[in-house]
Amino acid sequence: MRLAELSEHSGVPTATIKYYLRERLLPPGRRISATQAEYGEEHLRRLRLVRALIQVGRMPVTTAREVLAAVEDESLDQHMRLGAATWSLPQGPEPDEDDPAAETARATVAELLRQLGWTFEEGGEPSPARQTLVASVAALERLGYRCDTAHLEPYARAAAEIAAHDLDLVEEYAQPAEQVEAAVALTVLYEPVLLSLRRMAHAEESARRFAR
Amino acid sequence: MRLAELSEHSGVPTATIKYYLRERLLPPGRRISATQAEYGEEHLRRLRLVRALIQVGRMPVTTAREVLAAVEDESLDQHMRLGAATWSLPQGPEPDEDDPAAETARATVAELLRQLGWTFEEGGEPSPARQTLVASVAALERLGYRCDTAHLEPYARAAAEIAAHDLDLVEEYAQPAEQVEAAVALTVLYEPVLLSLRRMAHAEESARRFAR
Known about the structure:
mainly alpha; 212 residues; elongated; 2 domains; 2% strand; Multidrug-efflux Transporter Regulator, Chain: A, Domain 2; homodimer; 9 helices; two-stranded antiparallel sheet
């Protein structure tokens, strides 16, 4: 399809598509004349992902470009590729090395992973998500809210159920490349879904417990 | 206790405490001389909450002040007070009125609430969290990722389990005022915990399904 059709099918204005092409967020189309190029299904899919990262995930263009580089890395096996792509997504704050609460939090998180039997990091670097978790637990502790493995476990169990569901959605896509794109897009797009549902569930639970 | 002790007990520098006092994020202490004031346990607790909102929740001071106004509103019953305080927290994007995907998303969310039997909004305004959910579902649909009630239900069930756990933590506090403060702080502080655990659970689940 031509640029105008790509715009029509995706709902993304042509000027925005041209910007994404210039910023190398979208691979170039196949040249068919000096002024025209032909785009395919893979451009439509990539455009969805770019919109997810930039519009919903509010990522800067440089960050989105790094995520896409990980998505495109075909030298890795499927697990590593999924991992590389989602590890490259922006994360929360890192723990402060000088903070004694971070030391305690690091031990709490290590114990939690042992209890859950999560071994995905074994023999490798701690994941960016784990660093964010350590920083978040340290913040809770520093503010005087106890946060030990007993507090974290229900969240981890809920997260595991959600992750199984997320990967079921990812596996509905046939091709490995599509699966990686979907994994990244759904990771980003379902974060506000999950947080807003939690707040609604708070309101519902609070009504049941406290409403006159 | 004096300002210096408040700083020592909270770990917050005195200059920062003075800034919070000036910005009315912290109520003034009880004057005991022209230059000194006495602070109590309620100042220590409030300081924790302010730190949670500003440092972890990254809220602007004006937003934090609105949240605290809701926390302090003793004219409401406990359910309404919890609701007012957490509804005042910053939310994600609102749905775009002109977007046909928002129309579909609004119907999907209404159907989801009916299926779940969540009635907390009945006879009132749609909550800000519901607006964020509608906007997020609309974004998914617009980007070509189907998101119907069957997709949302597992997230909602997980959110309900988490919310029950959150309110158990809140109910560990004896006083209604403490409960409202804890509800707000824990809502904000556990958001990065939940998102980082979800990403870790993805990595674990992906290793189990795809690793060679």
